[in-house]
């Protein structure tokens, strides 16, 4: 099965605006820490999004943009090993794009460019 993968902040969530939504079988790979699970799932539910979400296993206060990108690359690689055909990954962060490509060099990435959300480590109490 072919799937696409989606970042949340800067892709699905554009602050006060709706962003690019995943298809029915697509997967969300977020840099948000597992510690942010409840508020993240609430926000996605309000948007009508019920896709599988892979949270960053790094604690909130320890994660960086680079470690978030490494997490995303590892999950994409895991999905490939599980037999999924990967279409594209939607990502807004250049640092994370480089980290993803370091793990999965041939991954196709749609770089979403905007200044609507911060790329720094912030809590999301939507």
Q: Can you characterise this structure?
A:
The strands form 2 sheets. The protein has a 5-stranded parallel beta sheet, covered by helices on one side. It has a two-stranded antiparallel sheet with strand order 2-3. It has one domain: HAD superfamily/HAD-like (Rossmann fold), CATH 3.40.50.1000. It has 126 residues and is of the alpha/beta class. It has 3 helices and 7 strands; from the N terminus they run ββββαβαβαβ. The mean pLDDT is 93. It is 29% helix and 25% strand.
Please give the structural blueprint.
Blueprint: E1 2-6, E2 13-14, E3 17-18, E4 27-33, H1 37-46, E5 52-56, H2 65-81, E6 85-91, H3 94-103, E7 109-111
Parallel strand pairs: 1-4, 1-6, 4-5, 6-7
Antiparallel strand pairs: 2-3
Helix pairs in contact: 2-3
Overall strand count: 7
Q: State the distance separating the first and last CA atoms.
A: 33 Å
Q: By helix and strand content, what is the structural category? A: alpha/beta
User: What are the segments in which pLDDT stays under 50 over at least 5 consecutive residues?
Assistant: none
